[in-house]
Amino acid sequence: MHREKMSVAATTYGRMGGFGRRDIDGLVAEPYALEFAFLPHQRTVLEHPGGRIEDMPILPHSGGAVGCDPVRFMETDGPSEFVEIRPASWLRQEVVADMRAEATKDHERLWNRKDPALCALAMRIRAHAFGGTPLSCEELEDRLRNALARSLEAVGAPLRPKTERGLDMRRVERVVAYIHAHLADDLRLGTLADVAATSRYHFARMFERTAGMPPHAFITALRMDRAAAILQSGGSVAHAARQSGYAPGHSFRSAFNAQFGRSPARYAQ
């Protein structure tokens, strides 16, 4: 478990095996925190204030916002890898004010969203936790403001101008699903623009406004995520490279080291 506190937010990156009620007291997700899960779960048991129990699945590479009440994670059906971001109260208040979202700020829990902005933020926090490319306070604030704004828009806050928010959610979901399905292939910007049904001229800029990182950086981060999963399951470095769209060699090692702060071979140990 890696925890860090900056002036704009406190972040947690964690990896653990499946746990049950007899094993721990539970992990508490604080009000208004953003949560992201890298791994899927068919069954996760949550406890809400007042003792209400909820049984729910969690999709891979998904997340959302906790809402106005804390939630205790009591049980999962397998290993977990997750990121939690707890924004400073002043930062969230500024985002709410900028978006004129007073009517929706105290929303219910929002979960299982395939939001590239939150995914990109979670992958940067994980890279920082592993000793990869450092995450500055300024970068964290910029990415967090975008992720918070997108979560508020998802619960009914007024939409920001398209020039600020980028692609709409339907186009984003199509593009991200296509990227996941073709990580081992040669992904071209023109093809992604066609999937999004938007101009090839504007696609890269619009995607970066949506996710907070350019398409090529987003694709690289997802490819390294796949490579890490293959290495964790016992796959070879060469197999991990090929399944992630790379030939085994320096380029793959360099990209992996930037994400995880170590070589693929060392990560697999």
Describe the protein's topology.
Blueprint lengths: L1 E4 L3 E8 L10 E3 L4 E4 L3 E7 L5 E6 L3 E4 L5 E6 L3 E8 L1 H11 L10 E4 L2 H15 L6 H18 L7 H4 L3 H13 L7 H8 L3 H12 L3 H18 L4 H7 L6 H11 L3 H5 L1
Antiparallel strand pairs: 1-2, 2-9, 3-8, 4-7, 4-9, 5-6, 5-8, 7-10
Helix pairs in contact: 1-3, 2-3, 5-6, 6-7, 8-9
Describe the structure in your own words.
The chain is α+β, with helices and mostly antiparallel strands. Helices cover 45% and strands 20% of the residues. The longest helix is centred in the middle third of the chain and has 18 residues, at 137-154. It has eleven helices and ten strands. The model has no long low-confidence stretch (mean pLDDT 91). The strands form two sheets. It has a six-stranded antiparallel beta sheet with strand order 1-2-9-4-7-10. A four-stranded antiparallel beta sheet has the order 3-8-5-6, with no helix packed on it. The protein has helices at residues 89-99, 116-130, 137-154, 162-165, 169-181, 189-196, 200-211, 215-232, 237-243, 250-260, 264-268, and strands at 2-5, 9-16, 27-29, 34-37, 41-47, 53-58, 62-65, 71-76, 80-87, 110-113.
